[in-house]
């Protein structure tokens, strides 16, 4: 990656982290409420009975109430476990049982199903730092989700979850960056 591109991504990630850190608790609570409704709508739209998602960190848009509702509704949810080789294993999760994984990120606890378990899901919900209007997702720089999406032969719909101001006109892009089909923000679902 050229130094200029790396520096632009690093600066944008730092700016996004800071914006997330200064959000008020009431802004976060309202965003969580709206995201839960929109994610539930997305599941209904795709009639998803088996999905892949993630355990949100305190700085990320909070999708945990939605994960709990999905689990209570009998929807099977795969949650990622980071591997040292840069791939993701998957665990059938309840959205509650977790441990601290690599990089301090929460990970589900349970029977590890391996990287190919994701091939059977109806919908994938991924985290992002930012997404542009052409669907290019910028993550946090480790490449786990780009590798996962790039390895799938038949990928179901993929939606990233971001705050409203993180859906932008463009993000710095590299060849390996994989697009998403849409984003879910507190304002709604945007198909890209």
UniProtKB/TrEMBL annotation:
EC number: 6.3.3.2
Single biological process term from Gene Ontology: folic acid-containing compound biosynthetic process
Domain of life (superkingdom): Bacteria
Gene3D superfamilies: NagB/RpiA/CoA transferase-like
InterPro entries in the record: FTHF_cligase (IPR002698), FTHF_cligase-like_sf (IPR024185), NagB/RpiA_transferase-like (IPR037171)
Catalytic activity of the protein: (6S)-5-formyl-5,6,7,8-tetrahydrofolate + ATP = (6R)-5,10-methenyltetrahydrofolate + ADP + phosphate
Binding-site residues, ATP: 9-13, 137-145
Name assigned to this protein: 5-formyltetrahydrofolate cyclo-ligase
Broad class of enzyme this protein falls into: ligase
Known cofactor(s): Mg(2+)
Binding-site positions, substrate: 55, 60
Keywords: ATP-binding, Ligase, Magnesium, Metal-binding, Nucleotide-binding
Keyword Ligase: yes
Gene Ontology molecular function terms on file: 5-formyltetrahydrofolate cyclo-ligase activity; ATP binding; metal ion binding
Entry's family note: Belongs to the 5-formyltetrahydrofolate cyclo-ligase family.
